[in-house]
Design brief:
InterPro entries: MAL (IPR013295), Marvel (IPR008253), MARVEL-CKLF_proteins (IPR050578). Its main location: membrane. Pfam families: MARVEL. The protein is mainly alpha-helical and 157 residues long. It has one domain (5-156). Helix content is 73%, strand content 0%. The protein contains five helices and no strands. It has helices at 5-9, 26-41, 51-73, 81-114, 120-156. Helix 2 (26-41) runs antiparallel to helix 3 (51-73) and helix 3 runs antiparallel to helix 4 (81-114). The radius of gyration is 18 Å and the shape is elongated. The two termini are 20 Å apart. The relative contact order is 0.19.
């Protein structure tokens, strides 16, 4: 992993995206965001809850992070302040969205945990929701670190 001053000050293109900070976080963001998407999609909704918001956030961030990665790989992103600003803005927005979705999902999961978990199917959904909460907070952390490091790169460029 390269963390030289040159790589921190410029936006990467091509395969360098997998070697520079903070762009190396894109793959884990996709993995954990995809896991949140899969886990939330596989549970049943028993009460009015914000799982629709969690699904929107996970799908939105997954799709746009994948598109952002493709733009980096094909070299569409140029070293300009506009692209660096967009990088910071997108990852800060994604971190905020994921934080709000994580808190809402944690609340719903805690409420679900207080219901009768004697039903085996309900207990399975509860366990999936717990895993989704954990992965959602990990995705929040990844997007937050990415946003902070992108802001440092933007400021130094």
């Amino acid at each position: 992993m390269a963390t030289t001053a040159q790589s921190m000050n410029s936006l990467p293109s091509g395969p360098r995206v997998f070697k520079t900070l903070p762009d190396v976080f894109i793959i884990p963001e996709l993995v954990f965001g995809g896991l949140v998407w899969i886990l939330v999609a596989s549970t049943n909704v028993y009460m009015d809850n914000p799982q629709g918001w969690v699904m929107f956030v996970s799908v939105f961030c997954f799709v746009f992070t994948f598109l952002w990665l493709l733009l980096f790989i094909i070299g569409m992103i140029q070293n300009s302040s506009m692209w660096a600003t967009l990088d910071v803005a997108y990852h800060a927005l994604a971190a905020f969205f994921y934080l709000s979705a994580s808190v809402a999902l944690a609340y719903v999961t805690s409420v679900l945990g207080q219901v009768n978990l004697g039903d085996e199917t309900l207990f399975k959904y509860y366990q999936e929701d717990i895993a989704a909460v954990v992965f959602s907070y990990i995705a929040t952390l990844l997007y937050t670190v990415h946003a902070v490091m992108s802001a440092r790169r933007w400021k130094s460029s």
